[in-house]
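Design review, sub-item: ligand-bound model
Attendees: FS, YL, KQ
YL presented the inputs for the zinc ion complex:
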Amino acid sequence: MQTKTKKTPLHNTFCSYCEYTGIVRNPNFEQIGEEPLVPCPRCVLTKCQCNGLPPYFIEKDGMISDCDCRAIRMKINRIKTIYARSGIDKKYQWRFFNSFEANSKLAANAKNIAYDLVSKFPDVRKGLFLWGNPGTGKTLLSSIILTELIIRHAIEGRFIKISRTFFNKIRATFSEGSATYGTAQEIEYELQNADILVVDDFGVQRDSAWEQETLYNLVDARYEAEKFTLFTSNVDPYRALADLADGRVLSRIKEMCTIIELTGSDYRGNL
Ligand SMILES: [Zn+2]
Ligand SMILES: [Zn+2]
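KQ shared the predicted structure:
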């Protein structure tokens, strides 16, 4: 359900075309080699007198002042910097809700919940735990949510895929010859403190006690700090996580996230 947007000072500055953000997405940016985000042509560029030349100042009567476009252009630059280090897989970058085709009732439901969450953020109590069969769009949907939140709020967001590579990267920080030697704490700190974290492919990693421990510590830390976290998983958390750490992991995830299934177990799929 969509709620009516409240009147805020932003309504005086920006217009409905850019949804009162001053920024519009440029869907054809890749084909024509442009930027994915541009200042709104209706309410920002109409006032721009600097022609988009950094540092976006204008000179009038010998005085230098900010061009009216400056705040938005600086925000776009900040978003791009954050986005570049977010870790979102290249093939899922700059994708928005219109690229998520819900081909089941459950997927449509998940999309609605995700959209609602993005619209209300940061006034949301819980993150999401999206689970279902492989190929149901969990990674795409979580990437879209992260992209939307970074664009709308210019806040730090990270995307990590729980894989062999992920653990090897952390493991490398313990080996003296490695370029990342000694940075385990930095990586941990970053993951624990990012405003938004997507943990893709969270499952039951039974390969080693250390790997399990690493993941549980991360869940614990995000829980304690009340940080917004999204998980995707191929497994039903009620079953797969029930016995782990005496059910502590499941109970934390239930408190941190709304658990949403993307496909039923009898899903035949039309992907
Ligand atoms: Zn506008
Ligand atoms: Zn300007």
